[in-house]
Write a structure and sequence with these properties.
mainly alpha; 14 helices; about 60% helix; globular
Length: about 290
C-alpha cells in the first residue's frame, strides 16, 4: 500500500485560491480571509463540504463560501442549544442514581464490587473515579471529606458530582439490572432502552463540549429506538433520533416547547441547512411536541 504525502501548510491567501480552484464561489474574499483567520481551514472546509462536492473532487456548480459559513454557524448554534437540554439530563440522572444507589447500598456502597454486574468493570471504575477525584482535589467539598471524615472517604452522593457524563453512563451500565430498572422506571422508560439512550446522549454531549459537528453527521454511539419510532422512519444514526430520546426523558413543559421552537427558528435563519441530513422528517415538529 502506498501512503499519501501530507499536504504543506497554506497561507490564508493560498487557502482561498485553493477553494476557488475547487470551483467554490467566494463572493467576498476579504470576509473569507477574516473567517479563515478565526476558524481553521481543516475544521471548516473538511467538515462542512460534505454533500457539496464528491470526495476528492470539485464543488458542485453554484456552491458558495457563504453557504459553507451558514452550515458552520447553524451547527454552532444548534450545538449550544442542544447542550442545555443534555445538561438537564446529566444533572437529573446524577441525582436519581445517587439517591437510589446510596439508599440501597449505603453511601460507600460504590466500593463494593458485589453491588455491580461486572467486577472487572468495577475495578476500572474505581481507577477512573480516583483520577476524577485527583483532578478535583482542590474542590472545597473534596478537601472537606478527605480532611475531616473517617478514612477520608467521599460519600457517593458527593462523589457523583465529579463524574463526567461518560463516567455516569458507565456506572449506570454496570449497575445490577434491578437497580437500572428502578431508576429507569422513574422516567417511565424500560431500562434496556434507557441504558442505550444515556450512552448515546453522553457521546453527543462530548461532541457538543468539544465543538464537534452534528450537522450531516452519522453518530458512532446510537440509541436503541422504540419500534413505533423506527416505524416512522426515524434513524438512530442521525441527531434527530437523539432528540426523540431526549423528549421521552425530559418533561414536555414550556422549556422543551421553547427548545423545539428555537430549532425551527434556526432552520428559518439558515435556509441552506438540509434537515433530512440530520434525520429530521417533514413532520418533525409534531413528533417533538
Amino acid at each position: 500500500m502506498e501512503f499519501k504525502k501530507l499536504q504543506k501548510a497554506m497561507t490564508i491567501e493560498e487557502q482561498i485560491e485553493n477553494l476557488k480552484a475547487l470551483n467554490l464561489k467566494i463572493e467576498d474574499e476579504a470576509f473569507a480571509a477574516r473567517f479563515l483567520n478565526d476558524v481553521s481551514y481543516f475544521r471548516f472546509v473538511k467538515a462542512y463540504s460534505l454533500g457539496l462536492k464528491p470526495k476528492n473532487g470539485n464543488y458542485y456548480d453554484g456552491v458558495t463560501f457563504g453557504q459553507l459559513v451558514e452550515l458552520y454557524l447553524f451547527n454552532a448554534n444548534f450545538r449550544q442549544l442542544l447542550f442545555t437540554q443534555i445538561e438537564k439530563v446529566e444533572i437529573n440522572l446524577r441525582c436519581r442514581v445517587s439517591n437510589h444507589f446510596s439508599s440501597v447500598y449505603g453511601v460507600l456502597g460504590y466500593k463494593n464490587s458485589q453491588n455491580f454486574s461486572n467486577t472487572n468493570y468495577h475495578a476500572i471504575f474505581l481507577n477512573d473515579i480516583q483520577s476524577e477525584v485527583n483532578r478535583n482535589k482542590r474542590a472545597s467539598f473534596i478537601k472537606n471529606f478527605q480532611n475531616n471524615y473517617e478514612n477520608g472517604d467521599i460519600p457517593f452522593y458527593a462523589l457523583v458530582e465529579v463524574f463526567s457524563f461518560g463516567t455516569l453512563s458507565k456506572f449506570f451500565k454496570n449497575m445490577q439490572s434491578k437497580d437500572k430498572k428502578a431508576i429507569a422506571s422513574t422516567y417511565g422508560i424500560g431500562y434496556t432502552y434507557f441504558e442505550s439512550w444515556i450512552e448515546s446522549i453522553a457521546y453527543v454531549r462530548n461532541l457538543c463540549a468539544h465543538y464537534g459537528r452534528l450537522y450531516n453527521a452519522k453518530l458512532t454511539k446510537t440509541p436503541k429506538l422504540y419500534p413505533q419510532d423506527r416505524n416512522l422512519g426515524i434513524s438512530n444514526i442521525r441527531i434527530f433520533g437523539t432528540l426523540v430520546c431526549l423528549k421521552r426523558i425530559l418533561p414536555s413543559d414550556r422549556h422543551w416547547i421553547e427548545f423545539v421552537d428555537t430549532i425551527q427558528l434556526l432552520f428559518e435563519k439558515y435556509p441552506y441547512v438540509e434537515k433530512d441530513s440530520m434525520g429530521f422528517p417533514n413532520n418533525w415538529i409534531d413528533i417533538l411536541k
